[in-house]
């Protein structure tokens, strides 16, 4: 009986993801937005980092993959806010263990989104970018491990954001620019040592910096660690901080979601629909 929310959530997540990505618009958005990083890999494929033999393309690829994982946070938050607005969350609340199944569905959509995005970028990227250690089993193990750990650290934050921010339009607009701005200062594409000290302290509290650092450690040669803050990959600390964010998210996320679900009612959904019609 305890497996029922898991089965329902997996089925719901698959149906949601398929319904979005089998439409012409949804499929085009998935392919175009996720393939855009390939343009930059093509542009910089033959360039090297000044003073080293390391390809700029191979240094950009892990940051791009980390970005794809983090954008799943905004996807989770957007789905949650939109389905609260249209009454989906209220209907899930009315079903026994429906809230648990709903959360599993959100996580399933996030995993499928990341898997599709990583495949679109990584598979061509491996042939575009020189210097990727394709035959290194440790690289593949580290890649999968950091993606899964990054999902566990970041997707619960999407639940937190979606529980607090009421409008999906705010998440889709300001949230996109906020994540992009955060990525710009989180060292995904250049060392954070060039930033102000206080900015370095802030970004090193958040999981995005550590996810990017971990991804770089599996793609780049050992000597590239000299370019990082402290001159080391700091793997144990990277794993520890990402794991801590995962624990925080999985503890607080369900609490906030249950609190939000308790406040849902037919009258609240009807009022949001009325406001939406007024905006139209």
From TrEMBL:
The keyword Transmembrane helix applies. This is Transport permease protein. Its main location: membrane. GO terms for molecular function: ABC-type transporter activity. Belongs to the ABC-2 integral membrane protein family. Residues 25-260 form the ABC transmembrane type-2 domain. Keywords: Antibiotic resistance, Cell membrane, Membrane, Transmembrane, Transmembrane helix, Transport. It is a multi-pass membrane protein. It holds the Pfam family ABC2_membrane. InterPro entries: ABC2_TM, ABC2_TM_bact-type, ABC_2_transport, Nod_factor_ABC_transporter. It is found in: Cell membrane; Membrane. GO terms for cellular component: ATP-binding cassette (ABC) transporter complex. The chain crosses the membrane at residues 26-44, 56-80, 100-128, 140-165, 171-196, 239-257. The keyword Membrane applies. One of its GO terms (biological process) is response to antibiotic.
